[in-house]
Amino acid sequence: MRVLPVLLTVIPIPLFANIRGRAFFSADSTDGLLFILLLLVTILLVVAVSLKVRTSIMREKTDQPPARFNATTISEYISALSSRRIDAYLALKKKKQQEGGGTIKSLLLLVLTGGWFALPATAQQVDARPSSLLQETGIIITLILLLVPIVAGVILMAVKVSALIRRRNRERNEEEIMAFTEYLISPDDPIIEQALEQRRKALAYQLSNKELAGEKEAEDAKGLVGNINIHKGLSIVAQKQRARARPSIDPELSRLVMWYLGCAACWLVFGTTAGEYVGIKFVHPDVDHLSWLSFGRLRPVHTNAVFWGWASLGMLGLGHYVVPRVSNVPLASMKHAWWSLILINAAVVLGTISLMAGINNGGGEYREYIWPIQLLFGIGLVITLNNFIKTIAARTTKEIYISNWYIVAAIIFALVISVVAYVPFWQDGLGETIVQGYYMHQGVGMWFMMFTLGIVYYFLPQQLNRSIYSYSLGILAFWAQILFYTLIGTHHFVFSAIPWWLQTVAIVGSVGMIIPVAAGTTNFIMTFRGGWYKVSSSYTLPFFLVGIIFYFTGSLQGTAEAFRTTNLIWHFTDFTVAHSHLTMYGIVSFFLWAGIYAVVPRLSGKEAPQITVGAHFWLALIGLMFYTVPLMYGSTLRGIMWMQGKPFIDSVIMMAPYWLWRAIGGSLMWLSHLFFAYNLYKMILGDDTAEAKGPAIETLNQSYSEIETTL
Length: 711
Ligand code: HEM
Ligand code: HEM
What we know:
single chain; 22 helices; mainly alpha; cytochrome-c oxidase activity; binds protoporphyrin IX containing FE
């Protein structure tokens, strides 16, 4: 299921599509020839480097002195022997003592050669980057003609050298085996025989299951054995580990964070109900004829509610937990945090009503709220920024933890872009379009992505109980994100009247984005190293994992969309909508859910039922796939139809089944949000009778420590 979107992301379909217009690759164009040339040079370099590596390994091995065996080095070899081989050896030894040597050596060779010490193969990937500025077709063809036999020759040579290396390795193995055999048949060495006997016994040892009580019934005066409950109920979902409540959290902060998250969940349910309804309208356009529910009004209701209501409040809620935690001080002002929550909620409520009433800021996407309403949101952010900076300034830690870098930068960027998007200077003409592109992508990249990454840098290591793989990689990703993301706004308007060079800058920046994305992904995945087994026993880690996978694939999909050739096909189609959901939903929402499931049980001491957390996860993931994959496929076909000059209405008819799939996927996603809301309710307000043991044990612990202090 997950392979398809990944493939669609990484394979630039239009490269192979037979379309009219500017195809990227065609064998008779200079581009095509250059491509072949670069390919040949790349192959050549890869083969050359691989040969170099392999021969140097072989040289290293040849330079090594032959293996020597003695009583200390032999233990490693012994542990690799099976009991069958030990038996065979000891039998041969006995025979030797009776017969006095001779053919023993060859027999021993037979016993020992089973490939049990095959030397590890070494592989190395090479990143060869050819560079050629030649543009002349004739010269390129000549070079290709020259290169073809050279490449073929080098490949042949590589094959031969590989065979030689393999043979040499085999010979070395045999030499080693010979040396080992010599050692084994050398005059009797009691130490080795003793070691072999010991090893044989160890291999033959089996538990009798009577170790503790022998034949007698176990004496269980303390009820240790009798207390074990082996009658487990039928398990429908895997048992996950319970979170531990954190006693040191200020209850006032807990209440604040839970309010933020509760409001966010309400906006998620509301916003996606609107999205679901809009999606249904693609299948049944005449479902209603009310102006307040028209497509044009409900679509921005959906996008703004999920942006400013769900994702923003969710992030801020988690941020209010993370910032004081990593600064090791209480939040600077609880009152300000409540004000910020009230203002942002007010902005979304008023914005939604005004949009449905037809009052909006014009066409600019994600800035449809009129300025007085967006101002409330802005003031909320200013208050939060001030609150966070004061908290960080009062920190008792020496360093500012990376999460705080990301969180504070995200709020600053959100404020800057909002001002740029709403000041009256650039509200007309091309300037407006450039500002729109800048606003839109800074919105998703510098507000949502930056903030969410800050949250992941805190919760992922915490949930895995290990430190982040590389702090420096986090810093690199941070600055690279600032460098490239701020340049890529105009990739939304490729082929528009915006200056060509500015579009090119945006495309180059979109490629540059690979650096922070690869750095971030590597950092997160490497943090999992050695802890993968924890994924199956945790219900937050699968959410993180999905977020990381989509962070990589969804972002690279964005890079693929930015090229002129691909944008020619995908722009104006639903491919962009699929990308928006793969990223805003697959990355941002999944990371937020992961953080929420990690933090709320710590604050409230209550858990959500595991079965409904599972239902939330799987419905959201499967729904997202149903939503996006058909849209990506149908949109590619649609773009090609447009380029072939087919009538527009034909492409609408062709899209019908894909829109149906989107509605089905959307319904599953929507259902998953109901489960999420229920889970949050259970985690915040649910009864915790199941946890009755917890307080009882705590009371016991307390009385125990009291007794200890009196003593
Ligand atoms: C039940 C879940 C959801 C459904 C059914 C849904 C449905 C839709 C629909 C039908 C559209 C309009 C597409 C168009 O104009 O062709 C849309 C747009 C959009 N939705 Fe959702 N959505 C859902 C969840 C979300 C969430 C959780 C987010 C963000 C956190 C989100 C972000 C967006 C964005 C950014 C757009 C604009 C897309 C663009 O212009 O490229 N959606 N959604
Ligand atoms: C390497 C990173 C990324 C690149 C290069 C990239 C590139 C693009 C491009 C080229 C488009 C415009 C497609 C078109 O209109 O033809 C686009 C749209 C969009 N992207 Fe990304 N993207 C990236 C990451 C993200 C992330 C992380 C998010 C969300 C968190 C995101 C959210 C969106 C949204 C919501 C749109 C739709 C904007 C609209 O309404 O037109 N993208 N992206």
